[in-house]
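User: For a benchmark we're assembling, each entry needs the component sequences followed by a predicted structure for the full assembly. Here are entry 17's components. Please fill in the structure.
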Amino acid sequence: DVKVTQSSRYLVKRTGEKVFLECVQDMDHENMFWYRQDPGLGLRLIYFSYDVKMKEKGDIPEGYSVSREKKERFSLILESASTNQTSMYLCASSPSRPWGAAFFGQGTRLTVV
Amino acid sequence: QKEVEQDPGPLSVPEGAIVSLNCTYSNSAFQYFMWYRQYSRKGPELLMYTYSSGNKEDGRFTAQVDKSSKYISLFIRDSQPSDSATYLCAIGSGSARQLTFGSGTQLTVLP
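Assistant: Structure for entry 17:
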């Protein structure tokens, strides 16, 4: 059974903290993605990676960075958490073919207070 | 204009009804068309995947793509209460490494 695992289901952090969200996939997929999901705004792409050490900005990269040192692991970093980063964060992975057939993790609900 | 437009609903139907969910898109370069289902407090799961115009059927679900109109649909036959979820369309371009989601339609099937 394919699996994308996010390190936490729920997180509460303070404004200004550096926050790490971890994601691991066991399907040997080339591509990995970080999205945030907010009511009325849908899924918005923060960053994606198509290979180890490779990354591309998505639609809303400001305030975030990513790291992909190993193929199976993709980390999202909030450099200095702010209250407007309170959201559901979803990690996904997909093969290169067929493109877009993404498998999602269960999500991390992050609250910044 | 958003690249992918989806009616957010909410949509409420009685059990056994045929459900029609729709998305439109603006970029003709998109090649791949997907539907995801998301239950409350869960991540989305891939339901249907297609890359050509026409229909694709899987059990009670049929995905329809009309590239000339830039319009995609998901039909659910004999809807069940367990189909109650948010349905997200997603459209991708492998060459552009782009995968864009609609905002989702919330569906409730009433017993």
